[in-house]
Write a structure and sequence with these properties.
The chain is an alpha+beta fold and 166 residues long. Helices cover 31% and strands 19% of the residues. The protein contains 5 helices and 7 strands. The two termini are 31 Å apart.
Length: 166
């Protein structure tokens, strides 16, 4: 698919990445793990949490608390969508220029671990990969946006989890 300028493919924003095999600390990527939790949960904390996922929260009668965290992610993702989003997953690969109902559903399905997203936010040159346990991965294409991105993450009430990368 061509971008509006007609000179390159959207695919450039989605280099192959096997999160089970590739080492994100090998210097190719600047990245952030963002979460509703303020630290990486231990195995015991994850097992004890009643809001680790939508289905767990629903079965434990904790949907209200779960939704508080989901709203934070949605606020961030809608804000980052202001100049459009290139959506790789779910397919087909396409550009979505406004934060509409389709894009909102992509975010919600990913946050609820129904269909994990792989999107690129044009405004800040960030690829977002939906992950599990209320934590998503942001891969930063242009480090010039890193400080502003971290501030925006904090302003919605999410946390950047410790990493040696960014």
């Amino acid at each position: 698919m061509e971008n509006p300028s007609g000179n390159s493919s959207y695919e450039v924003h989605f280099p192959d990445l096997d999160l089970g095999e590739d080492d994100l600390n090998d210097g190719r990527f600047k990245y952030l793990n963002i979460s509703i939790f303020d630290h990486w949960l231990t195995e015991e904390e994850a097992e004890d949490s009643r809001i680790t996922s939508y289905s767990i929260a629903r079965s434990n009668g904790q949907l209200h608390e779960y939704m508080d965290g989901e709203k934070k992610f949605l606020k961030l993702y809608r804000s980052l969508s202001r100049q459009g989003v290139v959506c790789n997953r779910p397919g087909p690969l396409r550009r979505i220029d406004i934060a509409d109902a389709e894009l909102n559903q992509v975010f919600i399905n990913s946050l609820r671990e129904e269909r994990l997203m792989d999107v690129f936010f044009v405004s800040c040159k960030v690829r977002a990969l939906g992950r599990y346990d209320r934590t998503d991965l942001l891969i930063i294409e242009d480090a010039a946006f890193l400080i502003d991105l971290k501030e925006e993450i904090a302003s919605v009430g999410l946390f950047v989890l410790n990493s040696d990368n960014a």
